[in-house]
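Hi F.,

I've been meaning to write this up properly since the lab meeting, where we talked about keeping a consistent format for the predictions we share between groups. The idea is simple: the sequence comes first, exactly as it goes in, then the structure tokens exactly as they come out, then a line or two of notes. No screenshots and no reformatting. I'm using this chain as the first example so we have something concrete to point to.
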Amino acid sequence: MGQRAVCQDYLEQQRHRRGRHARKIKSVGWEILLSVKLDMEEKLRQLEKHIPGSVSLSSGGCNLCKLCSRKDGHPCRQPDKMRYSLDAFGFDLTAITKDMFDIDILWCKERLLDYFTLIHGILTKEEMPDDLWGRLGVKISPLTHHYRELAQDDNI
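Output, unedited:
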């Protein structure tokens, strides 16, 4: 076997190894993200119970079922828990997090990230007292709280 063939075999092995590594990183990253996402969705559903007429919005698509029945034209199996994503309503979450919070949304590609970003929301006509968040075990980030104060000052 010539030197060129050995090099080509080596390069092919490296590509295969990198591909397997990247898939594993994406898989582990997704597991971490999904765990936090489902927990946050549950906390927001609990919050809805305290604020009549409110509805929460999720980050990304619905992940409650392993196989979605709606993809086959059947009704949702968990309509009481399913929430629409912010992106489904046209929110550009990458731009929002950058413009409002100076946070870049990162994606798992070749390594696990330093941080993950999930954006959820709740729609309500009522003012939400800060202590309600605390009673539900949800911490308001200083950036979110600061933005809310700015919005009130500017009548946004």
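Notes:
Strands lie at 55-57, 121-123.
The chain has one domain: 3-153.

If this format works for you, I'll send the rest the same way.

G.
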